[in-house]
């Protein structure tokens, strides 16, 4: 129905796998979010949608019935409007953002002559009647506004202070804060606006002003809460406050991500991730000399190398960790003979999976020097170049690899992935075809060809490719998973769910205990899309997480589903977890943007329960 959307990711990891899977995770989720308007989360009738670019707030056109709450909101609005009117009459300080304009305005005609103004002190005020206090307060405020307009900030501060002695009006505090703001005395701005807000909790100007001061004081999280609160209160009318939210979210998330990346413990990603990485290469038998039956000296590098390759075959997370350690040890022990290139390739691969890219590239480069036939090392190098954003360099790697062996189907497959990512679908299709011609048994070339045809708009040939692939590989879960995704994209949700179910069944049969959980997650999303049934969708995600607790996609999906249900606190735990699982800084910044935004909303919800006026559950637009 809809045109092919950009959310079909270029299939099983490949050149791109680490890259592409990681960068597309959030993209995929956010595309899904914005398309389905499903994973929005509402607070005070405002839907918050996260996108790859940051947080986007949508006004959730509230089809509001007449409720007592509405009238409360109305009252608040009216109150705000009245105050605005009062302020704009004569209150220059209330609009420090338009100082220039204010200056151009004719000065108020009847400004008090200074000597007529009473000097108010703590003692003298005690003797005044209420009426007198009110009168003096008003006169002092107006004089203060004039001084502010003349940029005589210290004088204005003195006048507002006297006005405050007469009357504890939040406007006076907020105006005095504007003076401190002009003088860059940020802590005093915070103090005064905080007092103003203790009197009037939803005083928009004070909220904005305090947020700005927090920002200047580098108290970014407080600033973020302030600007977000301002956005919610004025229904996102103020673009500069919304921009401030986006900017601060990025600042906070980036700062936090850099801190975490620096002292992050490097661990392997989930078994689902690692599985996907390895299946993007054709399975190669262990080389002669490293088979189970070969006699190898105990405690030798070669023995460790074999141990690593054996552990790899288990396809479990403990297996992968064993393999990683064994490859490290193999190189430490040395004396690897003809297998040295392979050992460096394997250690480099695991370093890449750990996110230690420089070390990984050094290993892979060395492995090619030692053994120029290590085409996989070229491919893996290309994948890391791509992750660094250097597609040209990646193409060079493929060219070099093909010079070494132009009959290696892996090279064509991965180059196709690169073309795909760059949107060069015709070239991609050609390379997938080449890879298939050289080896018809590698299923991902078939699957990806189908996906590419779909992207090129050839619906019929794409479906034909998938049907043929299902027929030729009836026991392979991946084909059902991708087929399902295609059907989902075409709006055939029921058929899609069927395919995902088949994929789940085959996965659990083929890899009991360490199955690829993505089909489960896919099914969860499809169920949610079809039935808007968050509970059932969550159950499926939960199941995925029991099997692979580290699966970042499952974690992030779960967070979104919880948000959708209005379970903000729990969503936050999952977003935090997603940040913990992030492998790259880019991924981590994304995850942290979500978690920071969620934490901020949670805080507002706790502090301003009266703003949460809308149903927080299934508020689907
Ligand atoms: C306030 O009034 C009291 C008595 O009415 C008087 O003694 C005192 O001087 C006055 N204080 C000021 C500051 O005017
Ligand atoms: C809009 O937001 C900015 C930034 O917070 C603030 O300085 C400004 O006063 C706001 N404008 C209005 C009309 O509230
Ligand atoms: C379904 O799973 C595949 C990986 O097997 C993934 O690439 C794809 O994006 C998933 N589909 C959705 C809708 O998340």
Describe this structure in words.
The chain is mainly α. The protein has a domain at 276-372: Serine Threonine Protein Phosphatase 5, Tetratricopeptide repeat (Alpha Horseshoe). Helix content is 68%, strand content 2%. It has 29 helices and three strands. The chain has helices at 17-36, 68-90, 99-104, 122-126, 130-149, 153-166, 170-182, 186-199, 204-216, 220-233, 239-262, 271-279, 301-312, 317-333, 340-354, 357-370, 375-387, 391-404, 409-421, 425-438, 443-455, 459-472, 477-489, 493-510, 518-531, 534-547, 552-564, 568-581, 585-607, and strands at residues 41-43, 46-51, 54-59. It has a three-stranded antiparallel β-sheet with strand order 1-2-3. It is elongated and about 105 Å long. The relative contact order is 0.10. The model is unreliable at 1-74, 88-112 and 614-621 (pLDDT under 50). One 2-acetamido-2-deoxy-beta-D-glucopyranose is lined by residues 123-124, 127.
What ligand species are in this complex? 2-acetamido-2-deoxy-beta-D-glucopyranose
Shape: elongated
Which range does the strand content fall in?
under 5%
What distance separates the N and C termini?
20 Å
Q: According to CATH, what is the class of the domain at 276-372? A: Mainly Alpha
Low-pLDDT windows of residues: 1-74, 88-112, 614-621
Main β sheet profile: 3 strands, antiparallel
Number of strands: 3
Strand order of the largest sheet: 1-2-3
Number of helices: 29
Which percent range fits the helix content?
55-70%
Structural class assignment: mainly alpha
Q: Which architecture name of the domain at 276-372 does CATH use?
A: Alpha Horseshoe
Radius of gyration: 31 Å
CATH T-level topology of the domain at 276-372: Serine Threonine Protein Phosphatase 5, Tetratricopeptide repeat
The pLDDT mean sits at: 81
